[in-house]
Amino acid sequence: MLIVLLLIGAASGGGSCEPTPPPRPAPSSMGSPVPRVPTGERYNKVDVLTGQQVRGLEFVSSETGFALFADCGQRCRGALFVTFDGGQSWLERPLPFAWADELHMDAVDAHTVLIYTGPRSWFFSRDSGRTFTAVAELPAELIAAARDSDPDCAFGSVCQTRPLIEVEVPVGQAALPGQVRAGATAAATRQRWAASVQEGRVHVATSRDGGRSWEAVPDPPGSSPAPTSVDLEVSADGTELWLVTGGPSGIVNVWLLGDGHWFGVGEARDLGPQRTSSVALGRGYLAMAGSRFGFLSNTGYWWPKDLGGYVQRVRAAADGTVQAFGRPGEVWLGVGQGGERSWFHVVLEGE
Prior knowledge:
WD40/YVTN_repeat-like_dom_sf
């Protein structure tokens, strides 16, 4: 499906022009993204029990990732693996249980992984899965770390990739009217943002003290019709905050905060109904997964990227590595800065 990017202020019938004020933040190291073909194939098969398939695959950096296999009938049997070389090889980590009522994994960082096995039943490791501790409730610092490692799950939103950690933030605490719909945290500065929607308008606030206090950010211009989805994406260094709103017509509007003002980057048609996620890359780029995967620049240009398979969703690791997820057990790792990425295709299967 073809994606057509229409710049704000473009003349009817084609063509484009630079967005109008408020002022645009200056891009750094702008340029065309790297070629479409992945630069490395990393395919592995590991020994698992019959029926076990990949249930979770998460990288916390360009080098370290965790994979959980599971076979769940009336109860679940699992197998855990870890890689320290970007998916070129995998080591099995014995799980401290034979059976579980449920089985989910949450990789927090290179040392910390959480395993959920049912109501009031958790196992966590602080040594990359070598040993585990069983608890009925996770320690507060692990809940906070898991939340911060995946900002999309903050503020009590429904997280499709990590449904285990849900943190409620009172609307009043975030100094926002209406329902809080999205959150984002900058990995380097720990600054947080939250967005709400009230009567069809989006409102944004920020916190620099871990969510204890909030201050309002100037509201972005209204859009018509009212947005049905709202996402905030912040670059790892905290210098770029993107707002992505979707409407019932299937048009995705994209805004970028600069010098205390929002400016419209553009709108993408035929992406909204299929759009699953976005991630800020830094240096003026936003990666978007939908009917097609690609990069949007802060100048409004769209670069579709054919990685060789359908990208279902995209997210970033703490070190800025882009993870573009395909089918279960498949991920493309984009290593680099901004739009300049070397891509590695990682596939893990059981045998």
